[in-house]
UniProtKB/TrEMBL annotation:
InterPro entries reported in the protein's UniProt record: AAA+_ATPase, ABC_transporter-like_ATP-bd, ABC_transporter-like_CS, ABCG_dom, P-loop_NTPase, Plant_ABCG
Membrane-topology descriptor: Multi-pass membrane protein
This protein's name: ABC transporter domain-containing protein
Domain ABC transporter: 29-275
One matching Pfam family: ABC2_membrane_7
Superkingdom of source: Eukaryota
UniProt main location, coarse: membrane
Keyword annotations: ATP-binding, Membrane, Nucleotide-binding, Transmembrane, Transmembrane helix, Transport
Gene3D superfamilies per record: P-loop containing nucleotide triphosphate hydrolases
Intracellular or extracellular location(s): Membrane
Membership in a protein family: Belongs to the ABC transporter superfamily. ABCG family. Eye pigment precursor importer (TC 3.A.1.204) subfamily.
Length: 325
């Protein structure tokens, strides 16, 4: 048995310990050795995600980063249970240590593409969505109030009466549309929130604004929310908001652990970030396999990082902090 296999076996032996009060009002998500394979027509099948092991905790932000096409959206889809029908998933995603379904309104997913009705204004889109999603026990005025507060939270108050617009009829900017999509999904105050590239189309100031709003959602409504999102090119300010980071390259996990420890990790493995360079840019440049020049180096660090990540998770599991069976 190799040392990597031994570490993986250790994870299987770890007992679960979840405080009762946390189980009642929070969502711990964990996945181990998760594979997603796609049937590729006549050419057989192709593995998009290969043996991913990680977790997401309540009250924390987990960022999924990696080069385009590495499997970020596929991972989010697998975690949210919404994979395409031509894919096969091996291993389950556990909620609070068990295979279970979440109640309606507990989870929300902001997709990578905005699906909005072009002829509605921002106020109408969010308000109609509130009418449809919020329970009958809430009065109309409460729903309206919730809709308007959410619009303000996302900084869209000046665009309230602007039409969303679409092909052939210009309305909101791309970044504003992203924010409307987020508004619609957070209306129900979900405990588990997935966001696929919430900051695409936004400048760095707007990205920071949106991500800090997302990070502070829990402080405003008192819910210890589990937030998982994919993101491209975060500025260093945005990066500092992340609690945990999952770095993917060609469907494999290169790093999983505290975002603040990733730089040290790269340095220890012989890839220090040059002075004055954004850390996340450096990580992506180092692990990008799309361009041949760096592929040889990447093959070797992927193994080292994956091994170390497994060791870290095993250590954390040993402390009884993570719900895992
Ligand atoms: N249902 C599917 N059928 C066929 N191929 C798929 C399917 N889903 C994903 N893929 C392939 O898997 C790979 C990963 O796709 P995915 O959308 O997860 O990447 P990504 O990291 O989100 O990329 P981006 O940053 O560009 O959004 C791509 O090569 C994509 O073509
Ligand atoms: Mg994607």
């Amino acid at each position: 048995m190799t040392s990597l296999e031994m570490e993986t076996t250790d994870i299987n032996l770890v007992q679960t310990h979840i405080p009762k009060e946390d189980v009642d009002d929070a969502v711990f998500l964990s996945w181990k050795d998760l594979w997603v394979t796609v049937r590729d027509g006549r050419h057989g099948s192709r593995s998009i995600l290969q043996g991913l092991t990680a977790y997401a905790q309540p009250g924390e932000l987990l960022a999924i980063m990696g080069p385009s096409g590495c499997g970020k959206s596929t991972l989010l889809d697998a975690l949210a249970g919404r994979l395409n029908s031509n894919t096969i998933q091996v291993r389950e995603v556990l909620i609070n240590g068990h295979k279970q379904a979440l109640a309606y309104g507990t989870t929300a997913y902001v997709t990578q593409d905005d699906n909005l009705v072009a002829t509605l204004t921002v106020r109408e889109a969010v308000y109609y969505s509130a009418q449809l999603q919020l329970p009958d026990s809430m009065s109309n005025s409460e729903k309206k109030e919730r809709a308007e507060r959410t619009i303000r939270e996302m900084g869209l108050q000046d665009a309230m009466n602007t039409r969303i617009g679409g092909w052939g009829a210009k309305g909101l900017s791309g970044g504003q549309k992203r924010r409307v999509s987020i508004c619609i999904e957070i209306l129900t105050h979900p405990k588990l929130l997935f966001l696929d590239e919430p900051t695409s189309g936004l400048d760095s100031a707007a990205s920071y604004y949106i991500m800090s709003r997302i990070a502070s959602l829990g402080r405003n409504d008192g819910i210890r929310r589990t937030i998982i999102f994919s993101i491209h090119q975060p500025s260093s300010e945005v990066f500092q908001l992340f609690n945990n980071l999952c770095l993917l390259s060609s469907g494999k996990m290169v790093y999983f652990g505290p975002a603040s420890a990733a730089n040290e990790f790269f340095t220890l493995n012989g890839f220090p970030c040059p002075t004055y360079q954004n850390h996340s840019d450096h990580f992506l440049k180092t692990i990008n396999k799309d361009f041949g020049r760096v592929s040889y180096v990447n093959q070797s660090i992927i193994y080292i990082f994956f091994f170390k990540t497994i060791m870290k998770i095993a250590a954390k599991l040993g402390e009884g902090e993570v719900p895992y069976i």
